[in-house]
UniProtKB/TrEMBL annotation, chains A, B, C:
InterPro entries: ClpP/crotonase-like_dom_sf, Enoyl-CoA_hydra/iso. Residues 1-21 form the signal peptide. This is Enoyl-CoA hydratase. Pfam families: ECH_1. It comes from Mycena venus.
Amino acid sequence: MFSRLCHLCTIVLLSLSAVIAARYPSFGTIQTTKSAGVLNAVINNTFSPINLFDQHVMADLGNLIEELQANDTDVRVVVFSSGNKDFFFPHIDSNSLLPGYESPLPKFDPGNPNLSFPVALVWNITQLPQATIAVIEGRVRGIGNEFIMSCDMRFASKSPSVEFAQIETSLGRTTGAGGAMYLAHEIGRGRTFEYVLSSKNADAVTAAQIGWINQAFDTSTELHDYVQKLAARIALFPAQGIIATKKGINAVSRPPIDVLIQLAQNAYAELTQTPIGRDLTNKWLRVTNNQSLSAVELNYGDGEDIIELLP
Amino acid sequence: MFSRLCHLCTIVLLSLSAVIAARYPSFGTIQTTKSAGVLNAVINNTFSPINLFDQHVMADLGNLIEELQANDTDVRVVVFSSGNKDFFFPHIDSNSLLPGYESPLPKFDPGNPNLSFPVALVWNITQLPQATIAVIEGRVRGIGNEFIMSCDMRFASKSPSVEFAQIETSLGRTTGAGGAMYLAHEIGRGRTFEYVLSSKNADAVTAAQIGWINQAFDTSTELHDYVQKLAARIALFPAQGIIATKKGINAVSRPPIDVLIQLAQNAYAELTQTPIGRDLTNKWLRVTNNQSLSAVELNYGDGEDIIELLP
Amino acid sequence: MFSRLCHLCTIVLLSLSAVIAARYPSFGTIQTTKSAGVLNAVINNTFSPINLFDQHVMADLGNLIEELQANDTDVRVVVFSSGNKDFFFPHIDSNSLLPGYESPLPKFDPGNPNLSFPVALVWNITQLPQATIAVIEGRVRGIGNEFIMSCDMRFASKSPSVEFAQIETSLGRTTGAGGAMYLAHEIGRGRTFEYVLSSKNADAVTAAQIGWINQAFDTSTELHDYVQKLAARIALFPAQGIIATKKGINAVSRPPIDVLIQLAQNAYAELTQTPIGRDLTNKWLRVTNNQSLSAVELNYGDGEDIIELLP
């Protein structure tokens, strides 16, 4: 029923964008619908067959986040889902790591001069005045996982296309937006080391068992029904309590920003530009055929065979 | 066997109160028995059908805590349980939030001038020289949950009357004694956001699965047997090791006191006095018939129907 | 297959010790084999029937750790296991707590003047440039558990000989190398209090359920197969990413060193030298027949009967 409703009322970022002029170019990769205090945001990067977290998505997310920051009463819950059922977000666009790459976006976030643009995006999600929920169908890797960890809650379907991974160590990097640090809080130190150092996939059932996500559902319908009911319930409550409660929980469970800048963001930036890091970026772009819909993107993190292609 | 023993040897706060004169008025809401280093404290607020965490309970808890602070060898374990099998503690007395409310208790704890009286009570439980165990039968909500989170350990029966919730967000507040912060350490960031922002109930089985409580037991007898054995075992050991171990664990797992004061206690105080907060306090007192034994108190946090009465 | 290979290629600390001269006397309690970036280190204290964590093991660990600190590319994963299938590590040598005890080792680590030698050993494991994995067969108690908690990952077999405990509270002490603090991050505050204050055993299945270890396996073969595959996979990746990722995870999940020094190491040192602490050390040496292979060492932490022998 939910999916039927969805087809009827899809509106491209209209209700909110009336309020604030978009600061970044708009690419239409996020479709939003709003009803009774809940904003559903479906992310579908039509420029990429694998829903790449690239400049198009980042620009649209930047605009959406700025609108949400300014709207602390009308919208009380934001639900992020993916329009591509094979990929929620596979990872960042590795082209952005190549020398001479030019983006239409600023390198650093104007509101957070110490935070690079993608790191600022996910950091700012943690402090939105709304409750935020990630509804996961499809693969979640790299900054895709950092995106969902920055949301307040995470729910997934048990579809085999759902896989969670931080793949940076396999590429000679570390998790640049603090993904490993958020995981350490959710799944403990030992399991974080296991998944992040090995860059392997967790399926939805395992992820729910160890606390990576809140819950896994047998079907897409059950997943969406549960989340829409939860969102509708939270949206009944005054914004003032939601905002204050988020601040309190963040203060004791979010990585400290200076630690995140130094040991995630800056370490990532440095490692991607070492000879080893540059070599692996080039190899990655080659074996993925520039991040096209391929066996590598579909199955990376599953078996040793694919991993061994790389380093 | 334990329950039979209990009926035989109930003593109203005598063994300990010989040591120290009670600082606060005594209301007899806590019955204590002591044996072989274990103090069993049964809380039964005879002024309230729902075992309200009100001035009577707070005064008696204040006296008990002061006695325990001074007794660091004779008693090595304290077991808190409820004499009301439907309610462990439902929440604070909302009348205390009304303008002009007068309590026989000081507003701030004399030993902790930055801590309001109820916040000081639960904070001081965390640093008692004794091991502390909450044995949960009946509903635990609001400051009731903050009370059990401040104990070292939590065990519950699987009775349907056992429900855990932080309900403050639904009333436009935040958890004033740090309940959400303790939960973030126990059940992770994502599940804390889910339960606290939605103000919904967790049953005992779920609570044990996600780490909210240590363990859930099929029957009341199994629950009490397990806890009494555990308490008796800990009470065999010297106080010096219990005290030092508690300090070490607290140092890495308890919310920092300045964060708790600012983002829990003070945020709560502020939000309860906004127009929205005052309106919801009045509505709460109305729909609960001044916190009487009612469907709202029994089932709050279960279904959307009751929630919708409110805001 | 793994165990057969192991018998063929055992080399006593040769490959690495060519690089650096050993700083401490060598006792041959650690046998190492290296292959494709993975160092397998089997600990077998032939001076003790219970694989005591004594001066012999500590000297050999000290040498191994110094070699690993200097080798940040050739070895990328270290796997620690026990040559004694009944005991991984039972605890520290209690003789070292007696007045006048003399060790061939320095009292404080030369590289960490604030850390006693055993505390420095396990602390330094956390910051090795290699991924570290503990493969657990046999009992793990006291500093043995602190050793495995200092490793990045922990895997065990479900053999009845596998038991995990921090037994210090039962001896009037606290966990001197931060074991309780690491546990609080992995299994939560409530369960840490339960296990550490009661000094009781957790079996492998329970330990995996609550997050004390990563996973428990039905057989020794499955355990070793899983770990060797995991180690081989991580060893494919460049050291630079492993090192950076470990730094990030450590920064948010390891007890702060000043807290560990004050509330673990120094509290332990103080409590072992009180009259109660000295009395319990003497009793311990007596009931264990100086830590020989006995019912106490095999079953300590299981039943109240043995505990009651002691205090």
